[in-house]
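Researcher: Go.
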Amino acid sequence: MEEGLRRSRDELERRVTERTEEIKHLAEAVNNALDGVILAHGYTIFYANPAFTRITGYSEQELMNKNASLFRSDEVPASFYEDIRKRIVADKAWTGIYPSKRKDGTPIYLQLQASVIEATSVTVFICHDVTEKLQLEEKLRQAHKMEAIGTLAGGIAHDFNNILAAIIGFTEMAIEDVPDRPLVGKNLQNVMTSAIRARDLVKQILAFSRKASYERIPVALSPIVQETIKLLRASIPATVDLTLSMTASRDTVIAAPVEVQQIVMNLATNALLALQDRQGSLEIAVSNIDFEPDGTTWGRVSREYIQITIKDSGVGMAPGVMKRIFDPFFTTREVGKGSGMGLAVVYGIVKDLGGAITVESEPGRGSTFRVFLPGAGDAVKDEGKQASLVRGNEHILFVDDEALIADWGREALTRLGYTVTTVKDGRQALEIFSANPSLFDLIITDQAMPQMSGSDLCVELLRTRNDIPIILCTGHSETTSAEKAEQFGVREFLMKPLTRHELASAVRRVLDAV
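Model: Structure:
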């Protein structure tokens, strides 16, 4: 019997030793795991492995006896975490993305697996930091969205610019025809101003999607801001008290005027939406400000900046919203009431101009946006009245498949003294020109036409007469640019829609260079 007891004791000791070794190996594996592991009674932590301390920034001692709710993100509603807790209690398990934060408050995202060991009521949490992975996925999604915007912008730009070309062209001539009717002239001028803004808006969309660029020149900010607010006034409710303050003594920056207009228009529109049709105030100011270099936000060069301030007394923003307002497609508005692109466009323009933008806001206390653009001294380009229209008497062949644009080209150039033959088809234009090449002094042709494109027509025209000057026009083209057009002999490349002054100047430049 003693022998049997001894064997049983030895077997028990052997099993205890083996089990102890297994537990040691398991503990060593958990301690060396790349994923974070914590053990908790309910939600009270009694173990955390080194990986979890690395992920969260807490020491093991700091985590002992703390509630696991310590890691909840401040930017996520408490109800989200309460739902997770209920799922763990009910199902004894949960898996998903858990928005969290480090000890220093830095937001992180954890791929979390939670399971309850029913025999001991211990909850095991295993997590992996997927913050960088999610950020990369978000950047990829944004890149795809921006690519989609570019494709859409390019697709509509040509047709929309053709429509605007007709509106601008005929409105301009109508203004000229009513010198004795000032009220009609004023209304037509408003149509003209709006059409020009629509044209610049298309350019802005194309520039934002990297399909077009602007000529940046020294411009004074104050007049552009005032003109933009004048356009906006019609949409400002009577309940909004608008205040303008233009105190900048030096307000010249290097920019395209449309870029400045877009900054002001988008920020002012955002401010009006924040007022939500309630009684409130909107303050817009342009002032000078100096910054000392700090090597971060403002670079390393001390220089003068011009500050555009747009302040509203609207609903304001929570800190979590403020962090995302410049993200493309982020919006707090209902579907159909905002695309989330306005502030992203502003941010892109400001950064591209070498400036910076800040925002101060609190819920219920309004928002203040400050745009800082580097000053350009006093080198303002003279944007005075346009020179008088240059005239001529040469014979021009005008080719465009859009009937309205062909009619406008004939009328606009005829008024300037030219003889004009209009054709709405590239093949027909080639036949007419080939029949008498010396009859024409200049060819103006559209690029996107059925049967024969403008660039193909140019090649054939130059093959017939290699010295014929050609102006190639387009509303938008993915395949043709000024550089490519120059390579096959085009003298000038113009983007539609054109004003009559732009057309007249281009015609004269080309003809006088012959």
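Model: The longest strand covers residues 280-291.
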